[in-house]
Each structure stands twice: as structure tokens, then as C-alpha cells.
Design goal:
It is a single chain. This protein is of the alpha/beta class and 141 residues long. It has a single domain, classed as P-loop containing nucleotide triphosphate hydrolases (Rossmann fold). The chain is built from 4 helices and 7 strands, in the order βαβαββααβββ. Strands 1-7-6-2-5-4-3 form a 7-stranded mixed beta sheet. It starts with a strand and ends with a strand. It binds adenosine-5'-diphosphate and magnesium ion. Adenosine-5'-diphosphate (ADP) binds next to helix 1 and helix 2.
Length: 141
């Protein structure tokens, strides 16, 4: 699908969030400024308007307490700066993504795509021009 501005990407993510189930894992793929963080903001906004979502580019991940639709937490990762599987293990990545009561959203998950579970839902973001983004959903890796 094509979104024509960041609000449309935000709203698209809210619709995805409405159908999200505990243990779901979302891998967001696409270049810088493709809209991965905007998508995550919309996704989390569906659960709470009060949560302030900031890009975890420098912190690698952030945890949001949800407690809605049987979802306890959302783990939001940005793996852009990680290089090795050891770094991923060191932050507890696999314990988090295997939390059956929570959801994981992983920006730049393609760097470690072979280590993500088969059930991972993949969204690819492509910048068409300043305001338009193509977003395609894939299941499995
Ligand atoms: P990423 O996390 O993929 O690096 P961000 O979501 O942080 O990207 O940034 C996307 C940037 O592109 C924002 O500045 C946003 O305002 C802008 N933008 C313009 N059009 C769109 C669109 N259709 N969808 C999402 N973001 C858009
Ligand atoms: Mg981002």
C-alpha cells in the first residue's frame, strides 16, 4: 500500500495494532527516514495516547508498559548499530522476543533476519518521494 504523509503511516499502524496478539513479532525493514519509527509510534498510540515513543537508535531498545488486549509490554528495538549476534544476546534480545505476553517491534531487523522466528511479520518500507511511502507486508522469513 502507499501512504501519502506520515499521519497515514501512523494511522495504518494503529489498524495493525488493533489486531495484534501477544507474542507477535514485527520486523520493520527500510532505509533511514522510510517511516519505521512513525509506524511504531502509531502502533503504540493505539494502546495508549499518553505513551511518548522515542526512537531507540541510541539506546537500542525501549520498553513500553501496555496492559491492554492481553498485551503486557511492547519491546521496541532499533538494531541499526549492532554488528554481532553476541551484542544481540547481551541486550537480552531473545528473552524479550520470546516473551509470550508481549509484542516486539524491531527496526532494522533485516540485519539479523536469520535469527528471527519463522512467525515474524515483516513490513518493508520504501521511500517513493518526500511524502509518499510504499509499505508491504510479508509473513515469515
Ligand atoms: P525511520 O525510523 O524509518 O528511519 P522515521 O519514521 O524516523 O524513519 O522518519 C520518517 C520521516 O519521513 C519523518 O520525518 C516523517 O515525517 C517523514 N515522512 C514523510 N512522509 C511520510 C510517510 N508517508 N510515512 C512516514 N513518514 C513520512
Ligand atoms: Mg527509526
Amino acid at each position: 500500500m502507499i501512504t501519502h504523509n506520515s499521519l497515514e503511516t501512523f494511522d495504518f499502524a494503529k489498524k495493525i495494532a488493533k489486531n495484534a496478539k501477544p507474542s507477535n513479532i514485527y520486523c520493520l525493514i527500510g532505509d533511514l527516514a522510510a517511516g519505521k519509527t512513525v509506524f511504531t509510534k502509531g502502533f503504540i498510540n493505539y494502546f495508549s495516547k499518553d505513551l511518548v515513543v522515542v526512537s531507540p537508535t541510541f539506546t537500542v531498545f525501549k520498553i513500553y508498559e501496555i496492559n491492554k488486549n492481553n498485551i503486557e509490554r511492547i519491546y521496541h528495538f532499533d538494531l541499526y548499530r549492532l554488528k554481532t549476534i553476541e551484542e544481540l544476546e547481551d541486550i537480552g534480545f531473545f528473552e524479550y522476543i520470546n516473551d509470550e505476553n508481549s509484542i516486539s517491534i524491531i527496526e532494522w531487523g533485516d540485519i539479523f533476519i536469520d535469527f528471527l522466528p519463522k512467525k515474524t511479520k515483516i513490513f518493508k518500507f520504501k521511500k517513493i518521494n518526500d511524502d509518499e511511502r510504499e509499505i508491504d507486508e510479508y509473513f515469515g522469513n
